[in-house]
Amino acid sequence: MNNPYLPDVATINEIIQETHNIKTFRVVLNNETRMQEFDFSPGQVGQLSVFGVGESTFVINSPPTRKEYLQFSVMQVGEVTTRLHSLQEGDQIGVRAPLGNAFPIESMQGKDILIVGGGIGMAPLRTLLLTVLDRRDEFGDITVIYGARSPQDLCYTYEFDMWRSQGANLVLTVDNEFPDWDGRVGFVPAVLTEEAPSPKNKVAITCGPPIMIKFVLKGLKDLGFEDEQIITTLEKRMKCGVGLCGRCNIGTHYVCVDGPVFTYAQLQALPSEL
Amino acid sequence: MSLLEEIKAKIKEELPGLDCVIGWKQGFDPLHATPHFMRTEQDVDQLIINPLCVQNLATYLPGMKERKVGVLVRGCDSRSVVELLQENLIKRENVVIFGLTCNGAVDLAKVKNEIGFLGRVNQVSFEQGYMQVKTPQQDYRMELKDMLLPRCQTNPYSSPVLFDHFFGQPEDASACGQGGSANLERLENMGLEERFDYWQYHLDRCIRCYACRNACPMCVCRDHCIADTRDPHWLTQETDVQQKWMFQLIHAMHLAGRCTECGECERACPMDIPILSLRQKLNREIKELFAYQAGVDPKAVPPLLTFKVEEANINERGW
Amino acid sequence: MAAKTYLTHEDIAKWLEDMSAGARVLAPARVDNAVLFVPFDQHNELVLEHKATAPPKQAVFPQTETLLKYRYSKDPEHPETQSLEIREALPQDKTVVFGCRPCGARGFVIYDRVFDSDTLTDPYYKARRENTAFITLACDTAENTCFCHWVGSHPADPEGSDIVLCPVEGGYVAESVTKRGQELLDQAPGRAATSKQEEEASSIQDRVRKDLGEAPDISSVPASLLQLFDNLDFWNDVSAKCISCGACTYLCPTCYCFNITDEASGLTGKRIRTWDNCMSYLFTLEGSGHNPRMTKAHRLRNRVGHKFSYYPELHEGLFACCGCGRCIQHCPVAVDIREIILRAKESADEQSISA
Fold first, then answer.
1. Are the C-beta atoms of residues A118 and A209 closer than 8 Å to each other?
2. Domain contains A252
3. What is the mean pLDDT of residues C26-48?
């Protein structure tokens, strides 16, 4: 019988220091068959275990189209993430994945994609972006508005050229002026409003700090986006990851099962307990 | 005007200047009273004061933050208010103390031992030192002084030690401080191994609900408690006796010199574990060492919250 | 369903003794001032007159259980490397729970729908559930705090039990509910119940139901609670006296929230599941410091909401409450959940009238 609490043992193959407090981990499940058969959809998450310390939830950051490894980007915040950050390549961790629901890719086909991300919020969006880029023909224009507090807080900088070359229109911004930055300056919601993308035949997906999401949602609504056209991912304290332990629910919906991906329309229908 | 009417009138008078006044009202059955937050005149009309009003209302005060509230206290729970003041956990100008005299509060555990089953009580009344309980099967009559809570038996302060308004005659409260702590005496007469077995036996049934901690007026750190934290990782989340006993010992230590022996911890325990004696023991030690009792003098500084170069009763070096 | 059996108290004692040979038999006995489900011991008097202090929840859902054990090992030749081994620790016991009330056994009907559903099987729960039999006593007394009839149950409700024993003079009239129950009953000493005994059992049941009184209609409560979700005045009011402990949660036969923590001991350790309490501040506290349920008003709203609104909405109207009343009896400040849901019903009606 499948035991939903039992993680797979995995090895850390590569660690990339994205920013001063974010590291990206590329892991491979030790069991080769399990790794080959591992199937997931963009948006789904996994629980990483550091045994003896605990588990924490992270989005599977790599797309299902690039399965040489599973990638997770981790911001150092608490006990588990601090221990994760102290691990080296070759160390063993546990992976319990995939959990949760996925971005509704099928409903996005044939449409233009607008991705609006802030800071570590780019993690789930990267999964979606790379999936969409790998299936380029199925989608229209792809625009990414990505901002962070400073140039040092931007993640995946080493991939920006690849995103551009594969067909994404990339708008980068930082919150304030910086000496070594000659790009756009402004908060992500402000840049969104300036870019003024049309809602016609478009789907907007956003993720970032709660305050950013709040203003991005407002910005999108002001631009004329309908509730069904806006998608976001939620974060909650999670333990079981399978909708049982009672922690991550918003009313009847468990963020670990019915989420973390929600449309704005769905969020409006739920009680407001974010 | 009866005493209750007098109290209600005073509360109604003070109500406009206060966020609420905390008292008691009738609970879910004749044996139970429940805390009551009075904001309107109709609320005040529901106020009851009788030996079944067992809850120590001071426990709500730290949560009231900057709001100005009134609270009803008796001798024993007025000490909790004073202790909170001593530790600057509440501000004097934010609390209006309605002081009551009291003839004792009922220990439902003792009533249960007397009548066996508390689930079908139809009526409870008090008169002339007796408590009458009616069930469908039988009527019971017991002496109130035999049915009192541990705090009634050990707390010698029959009148509130601090108050803004006082109701009743001081000589009414004669029941306080009679009887002592049977559990503590029994423990003191045990050898160390026997005591260890005693606590292993009793704590085995603890379910780590922390009713004891949350009912305590002094446990203002309940949301950041050593029992739940992983940094430092003093306790695991397992339910073996070791963890539970460790928690009780830590709790008792954290209350040393602060516990006013209101006994809510023991009363709140759904498993009837006699934990009050741990705290009473520490208080006894504090009294011997520092000649100090918690929650009596608002100006006093609790001995473990201060430092003296020379202590009157501690002479380790024989100087 | 086979014919009913009459068992005397002596029959019961022998039956429990026999069953103890092949399974862990848990029965209510006195433990100091409490009555708890403990392994049956002949010398320990059974306390069956009224419901036990705690329900038999631990038989199927223990307060602590090990999910897995792990071990890191280092190769002395290559100390910079490590290997990791994890092993699940599935339960193996067979248990018979004797002497619980219908409310206690029925709690697991609520668990079953989430722990063993079409989409998810919790193997630890399933292993215990499948190997635990419930021999339930129907109630012959209704307590002031009993409200099983509000939530679709009754004092002799067989749902969740394998055998139901109805008290009569000198013993019980037993009726099996499941095949497993029948197998157990076949092993019991006893004789066929007479029709007079069956009538006696029946009339006692009628009396108890009468004692319980009328149940109010709470079918609109799920919608009322949702309507009141943003009404923090209401929730602040009903939660004012709550002290946010876990007495109600841990004594509730239907509460199933849990925590998963790792307990390490050098290079080895275990991952354990323990009961957790949604009334605690820490329950939903996120690493960033944000807490969606920051005050006790929010947490009580979630607790009552889960039991009387969210769960019924997901599970065909079944309330996640069995009406045993332990939360009311053991709450240190006498919070009464019946009062809360009735007030919710009333307040929501008023809110919609004024809207």
1. yes
2. no
3. 94
Residues A99-156 pLDDT 10s: 999 999 999 999 999 999 999 999 999 999 999 999 999 999 999 999 999 999 999 9
Query: Does a structural domain hold residue C314?
Result: yes
What is the token pair recorded at A148? 């962070």
How much is the pTM?
0.94
Nearest to A240 by CA among C56, C162, B38, C276: C276
Per-residue pLDDT band at C1 (split at 50, 70, 90): very low
Mean pLDDT of C187-195: 91
Q: Which domain holds residue C242?
A: 221-354
Domain that holds residue A226: 105-233
**Residue C73 belongs to a domain:** no
C121 with A94: Cβ contact below 8 A: no
Chains in contact with chain A (at least 3 beta-carbon pairs closer than 8 A): C
- C309-329 as b/e: b if 16+ CB within 10 A: bbbbebeeeebbbbbbbbbbb
Same domain? For C165 and C246 the reply is no
Shortest CA distance from B211: residue in chain C:
C245
Q: Which of residues 330-349 of C touch A (CB under 8 A)?
A: none
What confidence tens digit (pLDDT) does each residue in C61-80 have? 999 999 999 999 988 888 77
Instruction: Answer yes or no: is B262 within a domain.
Output: yes
φ, ψ dihedrals at A116, nearest 5°: -125, 110
Quick check: helix, strand or coil at residue A17? strand
Is B312 within a domain? no
ipTM of the complex: 0.93
> Chain C, 99-118: which have a CB under 8 Å from a chain A CB?
114-115
CATH number at residue A59: 2.40.30.10
Do residues C263 and C298 both lie within one domain? yes
Residue C320, in any domain of the structure: yes
B59 interfaces chain C, CB cutoff of 8 Å:
yes
